[in-house]
Amino acid sequence: MLSVSNLSVQFGKRILFDDVNTQFTQGNCYGIIGANGSGKSTFLKILSGKMDPTSGHVHLETGKRMSVLSQDHFAFDAYPVLETVMMGNKPLFDLKKELDAIYAKPDFSDADGIKAGDLGEKFDEMGGWTAESDAATMLSSLGIKDDMHYTLMSDLDGKSKVRVLIAQALFGKPDVLIMDEPTNDLDYETISWLENFLANFDNTVIVVSHDRHFLDAVCTHISDIDYSKINHYSGNYTFWYESSQLAAKQRAQQNKKAEDKKKELEEFIRRFSANMAKSKQATSRKKMIDKLNVADIRPSSRRYPAIIFDRDREAGDQILNVEGLTKSLDGDILFKDIDFSLNKGDKVALISRNSRAVTAFYEILNDNDKADSGKFSWGVTTTQSYLPLENSEFFKNAELDLVDWLRQYATTEEEREEVYLRGFLGKMIFSGEEALKKCNVLSGGEKVRCMLSRMMMMRANILMLDEPTNHLDLESIQAINNSLKNFKGTVLLSTHDHEFSQTVANRIIEITPKGVIDRLSTFDDYLRDPKVKELRKKMYS
Description:
By secondary structure, the protein is an alpha/beta fold.
């Protein structure tokens, strides 16, 4: 359906893609992965015609329609919401405008009537007469209420705009759907709706996402950008990750017999296929488990940071006590009357429908802000380490290189030694000359990795992390996820990464304008609990 032939992309001396030949076939969902800077977004722009390659070409099968999730949140500000969605199917929308123009003519003639009749038949074949109701239904499914459908896009907040643009991309069932980070700024409920929609979408989907749960829920193939090439692997992200790790381990086992290695690979596929049979994909049109095979399993060249959180001391039984904490901002109640106590070893997913509430809560716990009322107290044996949502304050001194930046947080003479500091930075893939980078040239992901180095060096027994996956690539996300699962202390975690919450948290605390919901539960069980659903409605109404 969509093919790429002899594609090369070069910026100056840097070669991003070199003679790439591949195709994307109907009925499959391809998750594009690759390290930061490997060219994922560039590749999508080339597929959609928004950027020209240095050489080669992209071919879309004749008569097929491509739809692309818009990254410009202001492009449709002059249009009403419902009309913006319908613009996603350009041939249908253009035909509608043509029909509207004919019927609006003051001197409507017999010839106009004949032309309108012909166009009307074509419009009917394209589903035009139900287009508005179809668009409205999709908007409602994405949480855009009926009274907003005729509002101008310019009057919507950023999160609502994202939902409308997703509806626009999905509208009219395109033959090829291209989406770059579609889950950004979406809540868990909306992401779940999108996962279910795409898992049952029977055309071609090509998506870039750092949300592993999303990739697992929708992808039949992982398309890995590595060494300037693109290779497709059957299966979802978890299969790709676990199989590549297994293959790398086997490659290191020089003395293990080839026959034993093959048996190990086959057993891995058998176990994975059994688990996949229970997933939502097993009941959809995607039968990826039938295509898994040993030949697909290859080691990856990815570099994973070594994120290891140790503790100087074990905390006692008194961890954190929160009583009646309340906070408002700009007249809005972020949270009210929050009461809970943390237990030793708790790993808490701290959530709210208002992300500002979560950040404000963390800032209060770290004495960077004051509550309107209420109080909190940390146990005397606890030490806290905090990864804030906004880290720019930590990188104000642009003249510092990374070694000297990290040295600011050393507490002993040993920790101030360059060898010691370089060891921490090396774990976060700042090795050699990379460790001498200046703070003013760091990317968002590099700043987060520096902040994680700082946290590791603090050796605290309480970790607080506000959206730790922001700006990170999949390799870093996987590494920090594994580290928090293995951490022996207490964790307070807030993230839009579903897999993070599900695999790390054993307790869910939701802070709302009407109090707190507190459950010992996995994240998935919390979201599915009917009692919790009813309680959440009351808390936010």
